[in-house]
Amino acid sequence: MDTSFLAAMQLNNPRLRRAASRPSQGRYGGGEGYDGKAWYENARFLASHDVLDKMDNNKVIAIMRKHFPDTKYDEIFSNHEITGEDLKTMTREDFRSLGITKFSHLRRLENLIQNTDGEEDGDTGIHVCKWRFRHEKDGNFYLYFQQQKDAKGDEAKVLKEGKSGPIQKYDNFRDTLHDDNYIYQVEDKQHDSISQSQEEFEELVDLMKTAGIEVIGRAPTYVALDVEIDDINSQEENFSILCRTHIFWRDPQLIDGNRARYSSQHHNDLGELPITFNCNEESLPVDPDNLFKNAIDSSVVINERHEYFNPATGIAHVYYKHSLTLEEQMELHRFPFDRQLLHMFLNINIGDYKCLESAPAEWNLPQSLCNPIKLSLRPKVSSEFSLRYPSINLSGKTGKLIYKARVQRYSYYYFQNVIFPIFLINTLACSAFLLDHSELEGRVNLVIALLLTSVAFKFAVSAQLPLISYNTFIDVYILITYLVLAFVALESVIVFGRSSTVADRVDRDRSARPVVC
User: Fold this and answer.
1) Which has the closest alpha carbon to 337: 479, 473, 477, 476?
2) Are 188 and 217 in contact (CB under 8 A)?
3) Are 446 and 377 in contact (CB under 8 A)?
4) Quick one: which of 154, 172, 303, 306 could link to 321 by a disulfide (CB 3.0–4.6 Å)?
5) Integer Cα distance of 432 and 445 in angstroms
6) Distance of CA 484 to the CA centre of its chain
């Protein structure tokens, strides 16, 4: 392999130094049950960097558009006329000078360049789906899968169920698996969870480590939130929070690896020492400026920020205190008896980090931080909403933690100030029937006055809601009031008309009778 790129990157990336020192493995997938060599004889999974030398600026732009569709990186590479040969020798500092600063994007660019596999020819390597691990009687571990995908052109066929050779290496970072001869791409989302549970899968991975198989895992990471909801704005469809975020991860070599240094020798209550990261983007599992995916950018304010390291346990700890506003689509069908599910989407850089549901006991965290989320309401919010139990969805593979806060709206305010007064309006409308049927003007005036009052209530309620295309409970309630008033008005007109007709007929009959002297 042409190692000019690795040589250029080794000073800045310890992972590439380790990768360059590892022995090379086979390249293609295979195993019992199919003839993989005949199909993928010319396929490349980890191709030489000679591929980059052949790429012109247009091809580099196409790759940027494919792998970074929501950015303007293609324009950046186009303006600077960067070719594949230039890309091969670029470092992180070069990318930053071009305006590419996000940790995850820098990591993906490095991996993309290092693992360039001949995209010009459409070769994407061997991807297996619906896969699972199995520990067999011979003591070896094997990969079983049902199908093969991502072949192109004449090779666009489907391979039936297959089996790898004995597993030699499992790279949980790049989602690759090696046997004696081949490399398989095993995406986590394609794991056959029906026939193999996540618990069984994790047990097999632990057994692999015990058996001496090289398993490259992610650093365990634990996130604890203390959230105080400051405001819930149904009309703007957002809510404001004051969030205290604690992020812990295990990295015993943080100081020795020169990724951070001690800034003081005074321990805090947890036995941690204050530190300063030498490179925040590379050392942290999160980007503090982009911690919440659904945050309104202009509202994010970092009030406090602290970094610590516990030399006894090797646990790094960062603490942020944010005040921000999050977007939320309100469900208002049952308003004012509605219950809202407020979402907080946390972005985690999962290149080297695996999210944990709870903190391991050996980390010795205080009991107050063992609960992954604490929720509370400010007094002005607690007067309108009650707090229900929260829930958490962890997805370490996708880099997303979803925290859900359930709040129930108190309906007494609306019952007292809207629902009950409208009920009285309906009752008063029935008083029109007590008026004589000939007093049409009095009846109609009463109905119009009550109708205008109902419309005023409607506008008052609508001012507290967003523009929505469906009716809420209180909208239906007010519409029923309109129908009742319309019925009273229509009944008054019909009765008045019929009574007038009868009176005219009686008068005509009287005038037609002869006068008897």
Assistant:
1) 473
2) no
3) no
4) 303
5) 10
6) 46
